[in-house]
Amino acid sequence: MIKKRYFLFLALAFISLLVACSNDEASNGSEEAGGDSEKVELRMLWWGSQDRHDRTLEVIDLYMKENPNVTISAEFTGWDGYWEKMATQAAGGNLPDIVQMDYKYLAEYVAKDLLADLNPFVDSNALDLSDVEDTYIDGGIIDDKLYAVNIGANAHAIVVDNAMFEKAGVAPLEPGYTWEELKEKAKQLSDKLGDGVYGVHPNAGVMGFKHYLRQHGKWLYSEDGTELGYEDDQLLVDYLQITVDMLESGGAAPPDVFETAGTNVEQFPIVNEETAIVMDMHSNQIIAIESAAGRPLDLMLQPTLEGGELGHYIKPGQFLSVSESSEHKEEAAKFISFFTNSIEANEILNAERGVPIAGEVRKHLKENATDAGRKMFEYVELAQEYSREIDPPDPQGSTEIESLFENEVQDPIHYGEITPEEAAENFRTKASEILAKNK
Question: For this UniProt entry, which residues form the secretion signal (predicted)?
Fold first, then answer.
C-alpha cells in the first residue's frame, strides 16, 4: 500500500514538472516574440487646435483597443509654447516616445541625436510604407536615414475667388501663368471691382521668396547651413519688386487692409470680398478660409517664372518621429504605421493635418470629402505635376532668420519704408551673422 502511494506521488511530481517546463517554454517564446502579454507604455506629444486634440485622442483610443497590451499617454498643446516644452523635455532627457515634428526643426533635432532612425522598422515592416510614394517620404530623410514620417502633405498655393474674377470680367488664372500676368490681372481686378476692393492680398514673405529661389535653381540656405544659398542679391530685389509694383499700381491692397488679420485666415480680406487673391497659403488652409467666407473659393498654383525651374514641392505639414531615448521604438513605429495606413483611423483624423500619404487612405478620404476637402486633395495632385524634389530641412537659426525677414524685409516693404535694394542688403548682412554660428 505504501509502495503504491509512493509511486503515485512520483508520477504526479513528474507530470507537474513537465507542465512547468512546458509553461516556461511558452512564456519564453512569447517574450522572444514580443507577444501580447508584454505591457508597453508610450507617451505621445503634439501641437494643434482642440479639434486636432479630440481627433488624435480618439485614434489613440482606437489603437489601444486593438492593442490592449499598449497604453499611450497623451500630451498636447497649441503651437505657442510647443517648442519650448520640447526643448525642456529634451534637455531633461525626457522626450516622449512619439513626437509631432515640423520640417523647420527636423535638422536641429537630428543634429542633437534626439530622433531615432526609422529605417530598421521599415525594413522589418513594423512601419509599413509600401503604399506611400517617395514624394511623400523624402522630406523626413536626412543623410539617407528616415527620422520622420509625414502625417499630412501640403503644397504652397494661393487662394482665389473666381466669382470675383467673373464679376470683373477678368479671365481666371490658369496653371502656368507668370508673375507678370499676376501683376496685370491684379491691376485689372482692382480697377473693375470698385473702391475698397483689390486684386491681391500681398505677402512679400520668406515662403514666397523660397519658391522664387527654387524657380532660379537656388535655395535660401547653403548645403551646410552656414551661409545663404544664393549669391546674387538681385534675386531678392526682383522678388520684392513684384510686391512693390502691385502696391504702387493699386493692384495690391495696402497694409492697413490686411495688417490686423495677421496669420488668422478667418480675418483675411478675401473673406469679406475685399480682395480676390491671397498669396502664400498652404493647401490645407482652404477648408478654414472657405468656411469663414461662407462661399466657394479655389486653390491655384504659384506663378511660374518664364524659362525658370519648377518652384513647387510637396511639403510635409507635420511629421511623427520617435525619440532616440525611447525604450519602445518598435512599438512607437507600429503606432505611426497605424496612423499612416488605417482607414478607420484616418476617417477620424479626416485629413485635418493635410493630405494623407498612403495611397488607399488618400483615395478613400477624397471620395468621401466635403467640397473644400476635395479641392485640397485635387490641388495637391495638381501641385505634384508642377513639383520637383524638396530641398533639405532648414538649418539651425532658420526660425531667427524667418523673424528677421518678416520684421526687416516683409513689413517695411509693405509699408514702403525701405527699398528692395536696401532690404536685400540688410537681410544678407544680418542673416549671414546668424548662420555663421553654425560653422
Answer: 1-20
